[in-house]
């Protein structure tokens, strides 16, 4: 599996952290709902904790299993009442500086115990952090009515870097009956081949088995769909996502295959 490059990912993380700190300072409704049950202030608080948590992953002190991510996040929010958006923006700015220093010591293909027992390339850790900032920036901006343009290259880096991580977050119950191969073409990026079998996913750079469904997607749209921020109907109607092949209807199954 091709590894996303270290320098491009770290540069994207730095730029996006700067943007999200500005977004937090521009926001004026910390109590407004942003995503799920989280308010703008809670979403910003969560984002401020991501940088030190991901540093802990590199240092081997982040002991949260993949299935415990949601309870862990809720416990962290409950233990930290800070919702002042300027204070949280300060945290993000300090946190990203520390993260870049720590993550910069690792090559992109160095293995890191990201979550308990989940060994992934260092690039996967950084791509996950980049995705967190991009989508939570999207959540805050949407709630506040503020602009949050996402660079297509940043979405491409996120999607490619997440490939070795996402295989650990497949919903085994939702995919227990799914036996299929998908070709995922990210416009302007790379093409990957996803194979589901008995609740498991493998990702390859070239086809190893027959392909049932082929998908071509604009990268920002596909990223937001992957994070369940937008549905599939408008992207399909506007041509931002296209699917074809011998079983194109299987594209509809991808909306519920990951625990996000």
Can you walk through the features of this model?
- This protein has 260 residues and is α+β, with helices and mostly antiparallel strands.
- It is built from eight helices and nine strands.
- The strands form three sheets. Strands 7-6-5-8-9 form a five-stranded mixed sheet. Strands 1-2 form a two-stranded antiparallel ribbon.
- Strand 6 and strand 7 form a beta hairpin.
- Helix 1 packs parallel to helix 5 and helix 6 crosses helix 7.
- The longest helix is centred in the middle third of the chain and has 23 residues.
- The mean pLDDT is 95.
Topology:
Elements: H1 6-26, E1 33-35, E2 38-39, H2 40-59, H3 69-79, H4 85-103, E3 111-115, E4 118-121, H5 122-144, H6 152-166, E5 180-186, E6 191-197, E7 200-204, E8 213-217, H7 219-226, H8 233-237, E9 241-244
Helix pairs in contact: 1-4, 1-5, 2-4, 2-5, 5-6, 6-7
């Amino acid at each position: 599996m091709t590894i996303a490059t270290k320098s491009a990912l770290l540069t994207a993380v730095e730029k996006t952290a700067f943007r999200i700190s500005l977004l937090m300072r521009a926001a004026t409704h910390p109590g407004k709902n942003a995503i799920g049950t989280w308010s703008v202030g809670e979403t910003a608080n969560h984002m401020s904790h991501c940088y030190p948590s991901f540093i802990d992953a590199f240092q081997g002190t982040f002991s949260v299993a993949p299935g415990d991510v949601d309870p862990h996040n809720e416990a962290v929010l409950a233990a930290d009442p800070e919702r002042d958006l300027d204070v949280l923006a300060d945290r993000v700015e300090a946190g990203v500086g520390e993260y870049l220093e720590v993550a910069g010591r690792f090559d992109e293909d160095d293995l890191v115990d990201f979550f308990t027992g989940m060994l992934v390339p260092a690039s996967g850790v950084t791509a996950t952090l980049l995705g967190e900032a991009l989508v939570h920036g999207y959540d805050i901006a949407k709630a506040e009515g503020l602009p949050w343009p996402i660079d297509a290259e940043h979405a491409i880096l996120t999607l490619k870097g997440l490939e070795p991580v996402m295989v650990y977050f497949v919903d085994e119950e939702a995919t227990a009956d799914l036996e299929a191969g998908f070709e995922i073409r990210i416009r302007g990026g790379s093409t990957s081949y996803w194979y589901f079998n008995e609740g498991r996913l493998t990702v390859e750079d070239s086809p190893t088995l027959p392909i049932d469904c082929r998908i071509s997607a604009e990268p920002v749209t596909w990223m937001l769909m992957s994070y369940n921020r937008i549905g599939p109907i408008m992207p399909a109607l506007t041509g931002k996502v296209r699917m074809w092949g011998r079983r194109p209807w299987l594209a509809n199954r991808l909306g519920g295959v990951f625990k996000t």
